Amino acid sequence: MITLSASEELQYLVDFDLLSKLVVGIGEVSDITGVPTRQIRYWEDKGILQSTKEAEGATRKYDYLSVKKILLIKELLDDGYTLDAAAKKVEARMKNVNEAFMKLAKPTKDEG
Amino acid sequence: MITLSASEELQYLVDFDLLSKLVVGIGEVSDITGVPTRQIRYWEDKGILQSTKEAEGATRKYDYLSVKKILLIKELLDDGYTLDAAAKKVEARMKNVNEAFMKLAKPTKDEG
DNA sequence: ACAACAATTGTAGTTTAGTTACAATTAGTG
DNA sequence: CACTAATTGTAACTAAACTACAATTGTTGT
Fold first, then answer.
1. Do the beta carbons of residue A23 and residue A61 sit within 8 Å?
2. In A75, B7, B59, B90, which residue has its Cα 20 to 30 A from A89's Cα atom?
3. Chain B contact set for A13 (CB, 8 A)
4. Do B67 and A22 make contact, defined as CB atoms within 8 angstroms?
5. Which residues of A fall within a CB distance of 8 Å from B5?
6. pLDDT by residue (tens digit) across A26-79?
7. Ordered domains of chain A (ranges, CATH)
């Protein structure tokens, strides 16, 4: 039996380069999070979220981290936080994860 | 400094329950993999791929593992394999990863 | 060369998903 | 109740995806 280090096991199982490219539509995000599409657009208009919308009229796409963020904001709202406060808190809370992703999502040759 | 085990670090960084729900449209898959949408549908018609298409006329969605599979098949095709041979080889090659995902993608309470 | 099969590609016409840009409504606070 | 925060509704439009035909291109054996 071979024992792998944490980061070895991680990279063996999850292709972060691919993961970072897995962007889903707003309807899918709504299904996953339970937050209505209308509300997701509203949050985005307020500057709380960023989607990968490249041009006017183009469809919004959300990556793993954005969806995670929406889930966390929703939790805090249910807890009684205001939207701005929730957004701020989540921003801080996700800082570590964001950084880890940046490092891991660098393009690499596929290893299966 | 706190040291985490492999699976602890993994679960801290990646929410597999969420990851398993991140399903992308066929256009996105085409962008990611470089395989034309027409070809993806063809592979699916042949039974080599499975999308989460729930009804006739509904749009196909692909999860992480499906996209990974497409990437691997494409590689083998470029290498000279026939489609069927490539599909078979990839099936075997992904068995471990598939199993690991099944275990990890069980719904859990969100931990940030 | 050519038959036979594997693999891919083209596209017209239709459906589904997502967009904007208005405005209206609901909830909380001094 | 005035004021702001937060959400919601929807009409008219655009983008993305679907099916179901058929045609084309590549490979292999005789």
1. yes
2. B7
3. 10, 97, 100-101, 104
4. yes
5. 6
6. 999 999 999 999 999 999 999 999 999 888 889 999 999 999 999 999 999 999
7. 14-104 (1.10.1660.10)
